[in-house]
Design a protein that fits this description.
With about 230 residues, the protein is of the alpha+beta class. It has one domain. About 60% of the residues lie in helices and about 20% in strands. It contains 6 helices and 5 strands; from the N terminus they run H-H-E-H-E-E-H-H-E-E-H. The longest helix is centred in the middle third of the chain and has 35 residues. The protein is elongated and about 75 Å long. This is MARVEL domain-containing protein. Keywords: Membrane, Transmembrane, Transmembrane helix.
């Protein structure tokens, strides 16, 4: 941490204008990658919550049965869904669930973003030390991670599209529909906006990393022979 703070101080206070300008692009990429990590982290794991408009202990079975009727085991993720029910005309229940990406997709995205962020830190270190070797390594690594993040985001979009198609018969129901004997549904609505945003945000991260790599490559050309 001390080394990173010294590098940051050197870039902000002592570096030439070209180095400062290049470091701004790297810092922006780092912030965007951190945002991508945050989105990926929030989107990992399934969640399911149920609420009743009655506190009667005799109605506790409703949420248990509702989860059995509809949950992440019988709906295709990634999706966020909300269902409103009228149970035997006596009590109303609502359930909200988040069914996440396939675990392999989430874990790969997190790994790519994390390692890409580490490569940006290496790029900042190269700028502060005026190290052509480290800068070249950052540029080559960035091109590789740009490709990986671009492909991951593309697969994410396909996953969201597949989820919408697979859930067409289940989601976006309106009016009265019977979920089970004595259990009448009032609304079942699914949304995919969060997961679609995560996918497109990956393209933004890839683009920022590509621009940073180009900036560092241009910065390398400004180094004198003594710095190489």
């Amino acid at each position: 941490m001390k080394g990173l703070s010294e590098d940051a101080k050197r870039l902000i206070l002592e570096a030439p204008d070209t180095t400062k300008r290049t470091s701004v692009f790297l810092l922006l990429s780092l912030v965007l990658l951190a945002g991508g990590l945050g989105l990926s982290w929030v989107g990992m794991g399934d969640s399911w919550t149920c609420e009743l408009d009655s506190s009667e202990p005799t109605h506790d079975f409703i949420c248990r049965d509702l989860r059995r009727i509809i949950g992440c085991n019988n709906i295709s993720g990634p999706v966020q869904a909300e269902i409103l029910l009228n149970v035997k005309g006596e009590v109303k229940a609502s359930a909200y669930m988040e069914c996440s990406w396939d675990h392999a997709i989430s874990e790969l995205r997190v790994c790519f973003l994390l390692i890409a962020g580490l490569s940006v830190l290496l790029g900042l270190h190269a700028l502060s030390r005026e190290s052509k070797k480290d800068a070249d390594f950052f540029v080559q690594a960035s091109y590789f991670f740009v490709f990986l993040m671009f492909m991951t985001s593309t697969f994410d979009i396909f996953a969201v599209s597949d989820s919408e198609t697979n859930n067409q018969d289940v989601c976006n129901l309106r009016g009265a529909f019977e979920m089970a004997k004595g259990i009448e549904g009032e609304r079942l609505q699914c949304t995919y906006d969060f997961y679609r945003t995560t996918a497109f945000y990956g393209y933004l991260c890839a683009l920022s990393l590509l621009v940073s790599a180009v900036q560092v490559k241009n910065w390398i050309s400004t180094l004198s022979l003594d710095d190489l």
